[in-house]
Write a structure and sequence with these properties.
Elements: E1 27-30, E2 43-49, H1 66-72, E3 80-84, H2 95-108, E4 111-121, H3 123-134, E5 141-145, E6 163-168, H4 176-188, E7 193-198, H5 206-209, H6 215-220
Parallel strand pairs: 2-3, 2-4, 4-5, 5-6, 6-7
Antiparallel strand pairs: 1-3
Length: 225
């Protein structure tokens, strides 16, 4: 049994340190065609977080998958798209830095704060879950593709947040069960969740997910009260 007398008071101190974390985030920012035409209108914005394979310092890597790939191919998204790059090849997203970037973009452009949509794939999908947990009052819709998060986080997400989850059953990088268990927990608590399952598909379920008919119309139809 450990008693207080076992810890000499001179070895135990109380202290405080203010820490500052700096992050350099490169990003793409897309404006729909009518952004410049109606200077009084506020626009929805999709915050997209890429997977681990696109991390690093070459912004062109983002064009390999998801909405940045679609933008490079000329897809006319009906809203603004903010796609930052995680500069660390082997680190998780710094979600607080991402939110600082989002706030900066919102401060300098005509973004509707009630129509911020969040999506991510793989490591970015995991970060999207994390953002929905830590900032539950910021997003109007959440679309997660083959991401993962601790199931207990489910109860921390805004219960009014519409969620759409995508995952392939043969995913060997992030097991299908990660989405299956999270969706089950959310549904049990009464959340509005749609779950698209790709039978026989591996980790690259984002190829189909971001081509899903109706996904972007679904996003546009969502708005926070």
């Amino acid at each position: 049994m450990i008693t207080q007398s076992c810890i000499p008071q001179k070895q135990l101190i109380e202290a405080e340190e203010e820490t500052v974390l700096r992050e350099n985030l490169q990003y793409y920012l897309y404006f729909p065609e009518d952004y410049e035409e109606d200077t009084d209108q506020l626009f929805p914005l999709l915050l997209f977080l890429h997977g681990g394979g696109e991390s690093g310092e070459n912004l062109e890597e983002l064009k390999k998958n998801g909405p940045p790939k679609m933008l490079a191919e000329g897809y006319p998204f009906p809203f603004m798209v903010l796609a930052p790059q995680n500069p660390h090849k082997k680190k998780w997203w710094n979600v607080h830095a991402v939110m600082q970037l989002l706030d900066s973009v919102m401060a300098h452009h005509r973004v509707d704060p009630k129509r911020i949509y969040l999506s991510g794939l793989s490591r970015g999908g995991s970060a999207a879950w994390d953002l929905a947990v830590q900032y539950p009052d910021r997003f109007a819709a959440l679309a997660v593709v083959c991401g993962m998060a601790p199931v207990p986080y489910a109860s921390w997400i805004d219960k009014d947040l519409p969620i759409w989850v995508f995952h392939g059953t043969e995913d060997r990088s992030i097991p299908f069960s990660e989405s299956e268990n999270m969706v089950a927990a959310l549904k049990e608590m009464g959340y509005d969740v749609t779950f698209t399952i790709y039978e026989g598909v591996g980790h690259d379920s984002w190829i189909q997910a971001y081509q899903t008919e109706g996904l972007y119309d679904w996003m546009v139809s969502q708005k926070r009260d």
